Amino acid sequence: MIIWTDRRGKRMEAPRQPTRRVRQSTTKVDIAGFTPELLPYLGQAAYFQLGMFENLALAISTAPDLTAKEELSAAAGRALAKHQGLVAEIRRRGGEPAEVMAGFSSRLDAFREQTAGADWHELLLSCYLAGGFLDDFFIRLSDGLPGDVGPRVAHLLGQDAGTDVFVTHLKAAIGADPALGSHLALWGRRLVGDTLLVARSALPMEGITADESRIEPVFTELIAAHTRRMDGLGLTA
Amino acid sequence: MIIWTDRRGKRMEAPRQPTRRVRQSTTKVDIAGFTPELLPYLGQAAYFQLGMFENLALAISTAPDLTAKEELSAAAGRALAKHQGLVAEIRRRGGEPAEVMAGFSSRLDAFREQTAGADWHELLLSCYLAGGFLDDFFIRLSDGLPGDVGPRVAHLLGQDAGTDVFVTHLKAAIGADPALGSHLALWGRRLVGDTLLVARSALPMEGITADESRIEPVFTELIAAHTRRMDGLGLTA
Known about the structure:
Number of strands of chain A: 0
Shape of chain A: globular
Structural class of chain A: mainly alpha
CATH architecture of chain A: Up-down Bundle
CATH superfamily of chain A: Ferritin, core subunit, four-helix bundle
Oligomer: homodimer
Number of domains of chain A: 1
CATH class of chain A: Mainly Alpha
Order of helices and strands of chain A: HHHHHHHHHHH
């Protein structure tokens, strides 16, 4: 954990641009050594999206009004579509989705539990921050996938995540209650720590230990995007 | 409530055929007087599907294994697609979905709470029985909608509900534990009572009180389909 904490100081150097452009303008990191094998990659990305879907379903159930419920149902539908798209890729390769996902379920279940939050606003911030971070992370890793599956997965995961609902409701709540803002800023900082850990644990060990410094720029980008999300809500990252 | 209980004796007279065929072969009931106005119809059908989706999401979260999780996620996706299709119909008519659904939320929330069950098997049986019953019910009422919206809604709601997952898991669990079978048979009987009440309350009062006997054949059909679902699981209705 310490290594990521130390590196957080660098995150502000990244230019304030939309995530996609930042990724393109950064010196290309050869990600291939860090991308897991295809089926394990698809399995963990698919299981992560299923967890996002479950979080969004929980947010729907606990939403304070029908408009929020309705907006969140669209976001849940998109997470489910991402999950199902990844499951289709697993089947296309003759994999059994439940088997392929099984190795990642306990780690990702624990992550979901740690980041579910104590109330609706914390949950919403988790969906926005952890969801945004790990979508970007899996898109980034997809560069190292063989054949044409990488671009296809990147397209699937890069689809409009319907994040307006998070931003709208969080900004309104923070605007109405500055104490909530401080509270959520703390929560956001905790989330990025847990999210970095789960992202790091998704990488094959041998790649990481062999050349730790090569993966660093990828995390710098991802943290910069996280900081922009926090800033957009008026929260100090 | 008594009126429905009394009528349950008639349910066995209906031929054992798939629901759709039964509906076509029954003497046509003029449903028009019983169908609510278009927007209230769409609002309650949409909110019901959202509740089904929430129940399925809960079933996913509490599923005992990844295969069940994965199968249920497909069923949840279908419920969400039905909800979104109905919401699209509301918008097409200039309605604001949250407003149109608002009048039905407390009744349907209470219904969902009553029928959620105490464990995964009870919840699965609710999704299967209450979901099947009310899908059929709203399809039946759609005959009375104006213009081309009726057939469109019937098509949307009649799409494969992905009920295999319910039947497979419930049959396996009941086969392994006869006591669970007796328990779920009781639960199924309670469910049909609550479901009939919520269906009845979805009908405009004036239509019902004016000519109660005219709606009876519709409920007879719906209960026959319910009994077939129970029988298919080896449960006595």
